[in-house]
Amino acid sequence: MSTNQIIGLVLLVVGAILLYFGYQSSQGLEDQVYETFTGRFTDSTIWLFIAGAVAAVAGIGLLLRKG
Q1: Terminus of the chain with fewer CB atoms < 10 Å: N or C?
Q2: What is d(CA 33, CA 37) in angstroms, rounded to the nearest whole number?
Q3: CA–CA gap between residue 39 and residue 25 (Å, rounded)
Q4: Which range among 2-6, 25-29, 35-39, 49-53 has the greatest average pLDDT?
Q5: CA distances from 31 to 4, 15, 17, 21, 52 (A)
Q6: Whether the model pTM is above 0.90
């Protein structure tokens, strides 16, 4: 397993963890109330989703990359 694949695997796992925490945060009382009144999640929840998605996509890209 090359270094890029290991980094890709780590990024994929970190991305999945961040997405999980983002989901858990979005189901919390604070986010539910905030979403009811504003129609969107809190900034911290949105950043967890963004960071998780970026890390996961980067990890998948590194895992699929040849070389």
Answers
A1: C
A2: 7
A3: 15
A4: 49-53
A5: 37, 21, 19, 13, 18
A6: no
pLDDT at 67: 63
Are 63 and 5 in contact by the 8 Å Cβ rule? The answer is: yes
Residue 52, Cβ neighbours under 10 Å: how many?
Answer: 20
Structure tokens at 44: 């911290």
Could you report how far apart the first and last alpha carbons of the chain are, in Å?
Answer: 11
Mean pLDDT of the chain: 94
Which has the closest alpha carbon to 51: 62, 63, 59?
59
